[in-house]
């Protein structure tokens, strides 16, 4: 199968989640490059369990099998996280997740021994070296390649919505950047990352990927790291917008929203309805506003440049998606979106701790605590 041409159609809107978490030294609160030894021990104790080695040696990626519902996927992550925690505890390490670490020095963090990663660093130099970033990737099965880009273009109109809920990277190099998601701003510096182009057909995408392969771009990076992209090998759309959440409850809410949106737009195609689409410059502005302001963002909602608060948009979206959530068995998880609006996103909580303590180490402790409780205070 040529992954740049052939799309492995998924007859059902299956679900898969990739969640990146880091290993923390409880004394220094810094990241430690011990992922390989933790992964090897977890896998040795649990035959058949597979964990991914990530870009950095301080990171473990949890990957679900193909699931059908959000509760099924979250249950798998919960069980897997418990197995990782048992080993981490024995090794005197804490588990942590966020869009970015607030003070770790990227120059001191080792990159994993994988040729693709070494090639990225070699090619991108300073910007590639700074990728102390963690995210959540959500795969949703799509039944035909002709539906992929209409759905992706529609999802781009909800970019700020997904980002604002998950934004959890205000701190960088010991500073409050002023952004809710500094990860978003950093990651787009890579030449193959950022917003996807507004492809109108699968054929356009195939031509683009052919060009990238011919010009050698893919040889350097392994793939295109767009914020939303087709994963042709799996027959999915992969949504890569969200910062890594510090806990499983927030993760469940964000994944439910993502799953529902993809299926909702797929059903609109069945109904012969036009899917929403915004000008690329509006999508770019919404992305920036989501990264800068998070849940305080005023977002552009129409081609006529109408605007609305993202929190109001999210309340209405949860209501609009209720029938789809019922079909997908994730109504309870979708309702967590409203909890996040009420209690605040990750960047809110991190800033509150820093404002009280003036210490980013206290922020790391609080974020680790959320991982251990699997929810937020």
From TrEMBL:
Reactions listed under catalytic activity: L-cysteine + L-glutamate + ATP = gamma-L-glutamyl-L-cysteine + ADP + phosphate + H(+)
Keyword terms, alphabetized: ATP-binding, Ligase, Nucleotide-binding
GO molecular function: glutamate-cysteine ligase activity
SUPFAM superfamilies from the UniProt entry: Glutamine synthetase/guanido kinase (SSF55931)
Highest rank taxon of the organism: Bacteria
EC number, UniProt record: 6.3.2.2
Function in brief: ATP-dependent carboxylate-amine ligase which exhibits weak glutamate--cysteine ligase activity.
Family statement drawn from the similarity comment of this UniProt entry: Belongs to the glutamate--cysteine ligase type 2 family. YbdK subfamily.
Name of the protein described by the UniProt record: Putative glutamate--cysteine ligase 2
């Amino acid at each position: 199968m040529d992954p740049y041409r052939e799309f492995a159609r998924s007859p059902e809107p299956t679900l898969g989640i990739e969640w990146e978490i880091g290993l923390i030294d409880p004394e220094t609160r810094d990241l430690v490059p011990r992922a390989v030894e933790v992964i090897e021990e977890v896998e040795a104790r649990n035959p058949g369990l597979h964990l991914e080695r990530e870009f950095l040696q301080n990171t473990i990626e949890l990957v679900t099998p193909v699931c059908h519902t959000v509760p099924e996927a979250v249950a798998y992550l919960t069980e897997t996280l418990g197995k990782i925690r048992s080993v981490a505890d024995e090794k005197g390490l804490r588990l942590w997740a966020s869009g970015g670490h607030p003070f770790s020095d990227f120059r001191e963090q080792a990159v994993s021994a994988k040729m693709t990663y070494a090639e990225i660093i070699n090619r991108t130099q300073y910007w590639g070296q700074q990728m102390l970033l963690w995210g959540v990737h959500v795969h949703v099965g799509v039944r035909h390649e002709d539906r992929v880009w209409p759905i992706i273009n529609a999802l781009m109109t909800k970019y700020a919505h997904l980002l604002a809920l998950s934004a959890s990277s205000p701190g960088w190099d010991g500073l409050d950047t002023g952004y809710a998601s500094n990860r978003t701003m950093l990651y787009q510096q890579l030449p193959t990352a950022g917003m996807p182009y507004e492809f109108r057909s699968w054929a356009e995408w195939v031509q683009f990927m052919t060009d990238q392969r011919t010009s050698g771009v893919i040889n350097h990076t392994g793939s295109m790291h767009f914020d939303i992209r087709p994963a042709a090998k799996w027959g999915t759309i992969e949504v890569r917008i969200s910062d890594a959440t510090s806990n499983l409850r927030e993760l469940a809410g964000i994944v439910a929203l993502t799953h529902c949106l993809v299926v909702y737009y797929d059903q609109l195609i069945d109904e012969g309805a036009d899917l929403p689409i915004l000008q690329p410059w509006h999508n770019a502005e919404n992305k920036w506003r989501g990264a800068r302001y998070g849940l305080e963002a005023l977002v552009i909602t129409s081609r006529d440049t109408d605007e609305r608060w993202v929190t109001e948009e999210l309340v209405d979206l949860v209501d609009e998606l209720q029938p789809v959530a019922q079909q997908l068995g994730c109504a309870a998880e979708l309702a967590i979106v409203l909890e996040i609006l009420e209690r605040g996103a990750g960047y809110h909580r991190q800033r509150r701790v820093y404002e009280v303590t003036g210490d980013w180490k206290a922020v790391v402790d609080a974020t680790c605590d959320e991982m251990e409780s699997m929810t937020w205070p």
